[in-house]
Write a structure and sequence with these properties.
alpha/beta, Nucleotidyltransferase, domain 5, 5 strands, 22% strand, globular
Length: 166
């Protein structure tokens, strides 16, 4: 299964693509989509949407996982992040893909086994998971990849539970 993880933002949006097969995860792509901060919000969102839709068409994910808004952000930031999340929802809708949301705490706990881990800890753990030495770049990219890993772990956990219950 191919998973697209998204870390929403209105200037930079992280995107991580990974393949999940059984217990194996492989990194396909990790990067950041960017829009100029000097643009008005609707133009930034349009630019990010075009880039995100292009990525989805290029990598053909089976599912999309998005980091959800969390309550510690101020109201204005929460609205902006929600608008960026909507881009992922629209892409999923256009491509008829299932979508899943995970809180930052769920993502960090899934990747580092500690829900309050730092962004650097998340990035360092991802480098170990995927066996890479080079830097993953901006935290937006590694955060998006972590959302994808969180979703893959959730799929595995649910499969284990199903086998035990049924």
């Amino acid at each position: 299964m191919r998973i697209m993880g998204i870390d929403p933002g209105t200037v930079r949006m992280g995107v991580g693509i990974l393949d999940e097969s059984g217990d194996q995860l492989s990194l396909v792509h990790c990067g950041v989509l960017k829009a100029s901060n000097s643009l008005e919000m609707h133009f930034r969102l349009s630019e990010l949407f075009d880039q995100l839709f292009e990525m989805a068409n290029k990598f053909k994910p089976d599912e999309i996982a998005i980091e959800s808004v969390f309550s510690k952000v101020n109201f204005k930031s929460a609205i902006s992040i929600g608008q960026a999340q909507a881009l992922g929802l629209i892409v999923a809708g256009k491509m008829e893909l299932p979508i899943h949301f995970y809180t930052p705490t769920q993502v960090k706990k899934s990747v580092t086994d500690y829900g309050l881990g730092t962004k650097q800890q998340v990035q360092d753990t991802l480098k170990l998971i995927f066996g890479i030495e080079e830097d993953l770049g901006l935290y937006d990219a590694s955060d998006a990849l972590a959302v994808g890993v969180c979703h893959a772990n959730s799929i595995r956990f649910n499969e284990i539970i199903e086998k035990e219950v049924f």
